[in-house]
Design brief:
Layout: H1 8-13, E1 25-26, E2 30-31, H2 33-43, H3 62-69, E3 74-76, E4 85-92, E5 95-101, E6 106-111, E7 116-121, E8 127-134
Antiparallel strand pairs: 1-2, 3-8, 4-5, 4-8, 5-6, 6-7
Length: 145
């Protein structure tokens, strides 16, 4: 029998309080929004390769969207926002951000101004560009990695 897998929101919630670090990929030294998603996905047993070349501000994210869409572990989703989704939002014309939904009204993300991973209540900031869920048919269980 395979071990129970963490939900994406539970994995992300375990990282609340971790310090913010631009391009951070290790909870011990800090995470940014991409690092938060990578770490939470890893805790859920998903191995993904998200883009590493990006700045705090970006004029376009098309190259990032195509990289994410190629990941077998993730599948696009639509409809009302629910728990366990990775959400890409546009905060302003040059600022994009990733969040993980804990519910339709709670979002875990790397907050650069507060310098840590936090849980935001309410609506996600900005406008939603894309959303993904773990594709359970192609994802690995934690015991498989």
């Amino acid at each position: 029998m395979q071990p129970a897998r963490l939900t994406l929101s539970a994995a992300a919630a375990s990282l609340i309080g971790v310090r913010f670090q631009l391009h951070g990929r290790d909870p011990a030294t800090g995470l940014d929004c991409v690092g938060l998603c990578l770490e939470a996905l890893s805790q859920c047993g998903c191995k993904v390769a998200l883009p590493t070349r990006y700045g705090l501000r970006n004029s376009a994210v098309d190259h990032m969207l195509s990289a994410v869409s190629e990941q077998a572990c993730l599948a696009p989703c639509s409809g009302p926002v629910g728990a366990d989704e990775i959400i890409l939002v546009r905060l302003d014309p040059i600022h994009f951000h990733l969040l993980i939904s804990a519910s339709g009204t709670r979002f875990i993300h790397a907050h650069a101004s507060l310098r840590r991973i936090v849980c935001l209540r309410g609506k996600p900031p900005g406008s939603i560009i894309a959303r993904w869920r773990i594709n359970n048919t192609n994802s690995l269980h934690a015991g498989d990695i």
